[in-house]
Inverse folding.
């Protein structure tokens, strides 16, 4: 079973404007829709679209607007079991998209979890997540410190699960220190971790010393990975991009799908590219279309990085 653990999910309200956002003006909307926010939930939604991969989304959710969150989960046919936080709302994010491109994101800090909420999550993990399971962990909610995050990773490893996460900054540092099984920093997250003008694959190699199968994603330039002592870059073909929000989560989904199916690193990366280069061709942050895969696979280029 693949468990995605989202401590701070979000309801995203995406608003397309007829013009560009202007102060002191009535900005008229062209279109609006509601989508899923909070990274690991995207992984569950995309796994459902891939099919044949038992998975369950868990984490914390606010009781006050739970019905709306569940209605979005249901839209993606997700299997979910979230721990209720009484008297709180799951955060909402407003994403305003200008007609001429560019966007604004306005978000809330989200759930504040107590020690007893955390204890419920830890018990859930102890009861449900075991060896053969995969856990994809997201960035913590308020009240969940960096050291709590370290504890969460250790707990999942004690349960013998394969542990992956897609986090940045100090959480990424903890994930590396704890020798998590899989991380996928993008190039900005890598540069924040290792400032300086060393080539990216050398920075990446410092991560590989602790997390041998890590991947560094490079946006439209694809992804960097290491097999034995050689670095490779897998580059997707040029596609028509509708939105790259969630591209990273789609990559993680494809990679984890490969782990669940016993694929080697090159095939895991290939599945990461298939899912993410499909995702960018769709507006929703967790929409892929398997019909996009053939074109991507047939035009995917892999080269050595020296
Ligand atoms: P997120 O915003 O979801 O956190 P990220 O910044 O972590 O994403 P990126 O490195 O931007 O992740 O992208 C992840 C993957 O998505 C890339 O490895 C690539 O396969 C695919 N991708 C991103 N942008 C494009 C694009 N313009 N064309 C094709 N594929 C893309
Ligand atoms: Mg990016
Ligand atoms: Mg990312």
């Amino acid at each position: 079973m693949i468990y995605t653990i989202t401590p701070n999910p979000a309801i995203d309200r995406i608003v397309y404007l007829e013009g560009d956002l202007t102060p002191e003006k009535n900005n008229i909307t062209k279109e609006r829709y509601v989508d899923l926010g909070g990274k690991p939930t995207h992984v569950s939604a995309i796994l459902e679209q891939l099919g044949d991969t038992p998975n369950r989304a868990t984490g914390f959710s606010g009781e006050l607007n739970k019905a709306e969150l569940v209605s979005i989960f249901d839209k993606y046919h997700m299997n979910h079991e979230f721990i209720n936080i009484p008297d709180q709302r799951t955060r909402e994010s407003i994403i305003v998209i200008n007609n001429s491109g560019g966007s604004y994101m306005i978000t809330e800090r989200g759930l504040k979890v107590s020690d007893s909420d955390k204890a419920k999550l830890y018990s859930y993990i102890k009861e449900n997540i075991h060896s053969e399971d995969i856990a994809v962990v997201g960035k913590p909610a308020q009240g969940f410190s960096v050291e709590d995050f370290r504890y969460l990773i250790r707990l999942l490893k004690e349960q013998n699960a394969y542990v992956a996460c897609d986090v940045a900054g100090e959480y990424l540092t903890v994930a590396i220190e704890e020798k998590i099984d899989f991380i996928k920093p993008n190039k900005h997250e890598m540069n924040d971790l290792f400032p300086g003008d060393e080539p990216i694959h050398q920075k990446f190699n410092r991560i590989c010393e602790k997390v041998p199968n890590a991947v560094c994603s490079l946006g439209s330039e694809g992804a960097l990975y290491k097999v034995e002592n050689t670095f490779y870059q897998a580059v997707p073909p040029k596609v028509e991009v509708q939105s790259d929000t969630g591209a990273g989560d789609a990559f993680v989904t494809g990679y984890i799908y490969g782990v669940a199916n016993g694929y080697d690193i090159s095939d895991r990366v290939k599945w990461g590219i298939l899912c993410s280069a499909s995702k960018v061709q769709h507006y929703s942050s967790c929409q892929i279309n398997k019909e996009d895969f053939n074109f991507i696979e047939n035009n995917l280029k892999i080269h050595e990085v020296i």
